[in-house]
Amino acid sequence: MNNSKISIIALLMLLPMTASATLISSADVINDWTSGGSAIDGVTNGVWQQSGISVVGTGNHVGSLVSDFSTSGNFSFSLDTRARDDDLFGLMWGVQDLSNHYRFSWGLQRHDSGTSGWNGGGGFRIFKEVGGATTQLFSSNSTYVIGQNYNLNVTGTGSGFNVMITNTTTNSSIFNQSIADTTFTSGKVGIHEWYQGGSNVWSNFDITTVPEPSTLAIFGLGLMGLASRRFKKTLNITS
Questions:
Q1: Does the structural domain 19-210 have CATH classification 2.60.120.200?
Q2: Entry pTM
C-alpha cells in the first residue's frame, strides 16, 4: 500500500481521540464571563473578583458566574476550588439561563432543595432546572471539609454527563456519578455560590472540547480525497 495512504489511514484512526483543551485565566473569567444571581434562587450578594490567579466572591457571597462561550456534544469542564465556609457552592452546565440549566450544589451546613438553600443538613445534589422547575437527578449526604482543596469536573457525553469530584488534599475520589439525561445538549458553563462567607477560592478553569463525529467525518473525507488525488498523480507520472 502507498505510504501516503498508510499515513492518512493512521491519522483517521486517531481523529476520534482529537480534543482541544483550553486553560482559562482568572482575568478572562472575571472580564469575559457574566455574573448573575444564584442558580438556586436568583439572589445576589457581593461580587466576583480576581485575586491573583484565582477568582473569589466578596462578603457572604451569593451569585453565579457563567461563561462567554457554549459547549455542545462531548466536552469536559473542570476547575479547582477550596471551600472557606459551610454553605453551598457548585458547577453549572448546559446553561441557557438561570431557569434552564444543569447544576450541582454541595453544602456542609445546608443543602440545595431545588428552589432554596435554607435546608438544614449538608449534602450533594444534582439538579436539572427547566422553566424554573427543578428535578433532582442525584443526591448524597456526603459533605466537604472547610480548608481542603477539590477538583470539580463535569464531562458531557452523547447520552448525558458525568460528575466527578476529587479531594486533591487527600488525593481521594469523592464522587464519580453518571447521569443519563439529554435535556440540554449544549449551553454555557459556570460556577455558583450560596451564602459562602468569604467565598471559595476558584482556580485552574479548564474546558476541553471534542469535535463532533460529523466534523471528523467531513475532515476525514477531505483527507482521503487529497490522498486519492496524490496517488492518481503518482500513477500518471510513473506510467
A1: yes
A2: 0.82
